Amino acid sequence: MDEGELCLLVGPFGVGKSTLLGTVSGLVPHFSGGTLHGTVTVAGRDTRTHRPRELADVVGTVGQDPLAHFVTDTVEDELAYGMESLGLPPDTMRRRVEETLDLLGLAALRERPIATLSGGQQQRVAIGSVLTAHPRVLVLDEPTSALDPAAAEEVLAVLQRLVHDLGTTVLLAEHRLERVVQYADQVVVLPAPGEAPLVDEPAAMMAVSPVHPPVVALGRLAGWSPLPLSVRDARRRAGTLRDRLAPAPAATDESPPAAPGPAAPPAGRAEGLIVRRGRIDALRGVDLTVRPGESVALMGRNGAGKSTLLSAFVGLHEPAAGTVRVGDAVPHRTRPAELLRRLGLVTQEPRDLLYADTVAAECAAADRDGDAPPGTCRALVTGLLPGVADATHPPTHGTCPRGSGSRSRWPSSSPRARR
Amino acid sequence: MWALGLAVAASSTTNPLLLALLVAVAGYVVAVRRTRAPWDRSYGAFVKIALEVIGIRLVFAVFLGSPIPGTRTLFTLPEVPLPHWAEGVWLGGRVTAEGLVFALYDGLKLAALLICVGAANALANPARLLKSLPGALYEAGVAVAVAMTFAPHLVADVQRLRAARRLRGRSDGGLKALLQVGLPILEGALERSVALAAAMDARGYGRTARVPRAVRHTTTALSIGGLLGVCAGTYGLLAAEGAGYALPVLLAGLAAALGGLWLGRAALRAQPLPARPVGRARLAGRRVRGRGGGPDGLGGGSYAPTALRPPAIPLTAPTLPLWPAASVLLGLLPALVAPVPPDAVVRTGPDRRSAPDTRSGGTWRAHRAAATGAGTRPARRPPPARRTRAPNHQRRRPSGDQL
Description:
Chain A has helices spanning 17-25, 27-30, 75-86, 90-103, 119-131, 149-166, 177-180, 202-206, 214-222, 231-237, 239-245, 250-254, 306-313, 336-339, 359-370, 376-384, 415-418; strands spanning 6-10, 41-42, 45-46, 59-62, 137-141, 169-173, 186-189, 198-200, 268-277, 280-290, 321-326.
């Protein structure tokens, strides 16, 4: 990697992206264990002979979960922590903290406890906390994967500014390629575990990459060359394609499934629902009716109360006012086993729902929970995630990388509830 | 130290009026100067514990009897005869007004102490207190600060996993549920610790300084010895027995700790971020030195002893001694002197993500400027955001989501 470059690391889940990123900071193999062949050199320092702490002034690492990264609990302390470890003089620390607060737009948050910040703000603090040490290379492992689109924009704007204004070298792994691929100077593709990486310009690499954003898929389908990397690129090319697609009006009429008539009794209903969490009204007068066969998308900013509304339907929160019904049941007064026959919820952290050591044991437990005949859940797993052995341990890093989303494909509620 | 002053004052009196005044002072300061930080919830917990302490003390006084000989019998419980090896312990029997009042005063004293500790907890971030440790103990301090975040995380994990059990259709109450989520919780805690250790290592935790061995060891010995001395001395001051040795031990401990601090500052690499010119924490330090008269005036019983420790026999109504009460009121000073925490200003509603940048940014800045004073902050260069044009992608449309 050359200095000042924004390099994007791409590959399917479990291919070793995080491991490769870890070798830059020296955490692999010093912290993770394992055997390292070959050499990794950062700013002239060999990671085999330098431990992560001795690379702390040249490499800054930010992971996908900012909360796992924080050592202290207020913004300012967090920005200073790395410099404290490096033993910088107090005046320098104070100056760099002020600079970083301004650079990342965090000045108004300086004394806030980190736990009270939004996801995008937390991720910006995490980036700022490694920037204060003035690293030559910034390594980011899926920094926007836990963020909503607006917060992801916030973080990517910061990265852009670092590359353009400060000349920081950035190495970035990201699975939502549509967010970043148009800004990359270079793309490294890891095609499969153990295979040699491919390195080239973004457009050339996207032509062969097994993982690519939707806009590239469109480009490949339409046979465009070079491939478009952003919606804007695609729109400029799309003139002829639009003409070709124009006289096919019938296709759009059939696609949405016929909505059931208003006569059908609602599957779930909330009326004037108010839920309080602590001193805050998380939901204020929500009305929602979900009819059988309907798909409803719930949208809103971080902290708007989406999760609270879903939790209210599974009875995790008792309404302060208003009603919530699932069929004819009152969720928070219904036994969990009874409620499971009516609805299931898959949470953001799928691991919370999995207790057993192996896939087979987990499936057997799910069948017992849902009173389903043995083997029902296992059949569903095979359908959703083919080729998983009974003895696989669900949360292991190798088969189901953490946070990568593959674990959420486990059918964690009972088969009937899923249906 | 403000709380420590109140606590010393509380421990040197059993006058319920004075104690109530102390509790009210601590409560008022917490009420007007609390932030929304996670640690500020501890105040409520401490108040609850304090009330429980009073309750338990009274229940014990009723059922286990009291060594206080009293004349005014309120009621008599049936006495349980105990074998003679349990001599000195009795169950039931006469309950006298004097005994109850003595127990109440005693419980009240302990409760006031607890509330003072709770107030300290609510107003000061424990991690920041640890940061004022001597330089030699910096790394141990970080380790302790990290360990202290363990408990709140664990509580949050238990709640999340019990909710998740409900989603699997299993009952979320009872001991069995708690035991079954135990393993995932431990697993999660362990994973978090490892992730945090990796993050700390990658950020330079434990970089060795080029310091002679002897200096390093002397620094550690002085700091730890000094802190132990300070602890023992403080205990001596608070306890009734240690009046003789408390002060010399405290002073010796302080001297050793300061020596360690001086050595550590000269020798060690790791230094904490200096506070900005006038921070809240600094002011908290200053205000304490200002009110030193409070505990001293109360201590040692130099003031009329019956006013500070109203006797339970004979039963008399406690009077409010004027000067001690006035010096307790000095404890209100922080409520007026310390600046309002920024949180209190930004507290506008549940949606806080945009608040600091746009809505209340102006008021916050104005407040900050007023609090720090013009020109005390180091000059800094203008933020590049305003210097350059917005980055490209802000002008472009977002790609994938629109498609």
